[in-house]
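Complex 182.
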Amino acid sequence: MDFNQIFELRRTINEFEDKKIPNKLVIEAIKAGNLAPCHRLTFPWRFKNIGQENRLKIAKRYLEIKSENKILRKNIKQKLRRKIMNPSHLVVASQIKDKDTKTDLENYAACSCAIQNIMLSLASKDIGTKWSTGKITEDKKTYEITKIDTKKEKIIGFIFIGIGKVPPKIKRPKLETIYSEI
Ligand SMILES: Cc1cc2nc3c(=O)[nH]c(=O)nc-3n(C[C@H](O)[C@H](O)[C@H](O)COP(=O)(O)O)c2cc1C
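Predicted structure with flavin mononucleotide bound:
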């Protein structure tokens, strides 16, 4: 496969099927993540593969958050539960905190590169991903469930991994609007 094709293959999957993929492909992807560039060799990325028991706890908390100030219909609740439970794997990505703002910013850039490496590695094997952020990734309970110390690390997203429908193509900026030669 032409390497450049992988960039097009990687798309955000919104609906995952309830299908398992081999764990070794996830480990291979995490190894690709660990090869990302980082300034001053800070290696600020951390990943945790969430097991079934903890995923159920996250799904429960997700539903609680989504139900705040409103009553959700049964089918909506089922849909939300599937969102967390269907993907083959759920990896929580976190960043080691640094007191220095500039280092912290550069560390986030490095973590983003690592996550992109992970998603590209999986895309090359026809496996879908979704980098997701929101109230659930900021929630205190999520830190507790994933045993991530808020003082030391910041959760920067969930990476859902599995098989799912590829979304329609999106319009991207024309090359001339993002690139020039001066
Ligand atoms: C830091 C970050 C956080 C994201 N969080 C979400 C999210 O919470 N929900 C979501 O649907 N997509 C999320 N996305 C995915 C974007 O919506 C997606 O990349 C964008 O729509 C472009 O589609 P593509 O990834 O298929 O090219 C996130 C992407 C990044 C980089």
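The longest strand covers residues 153-162.
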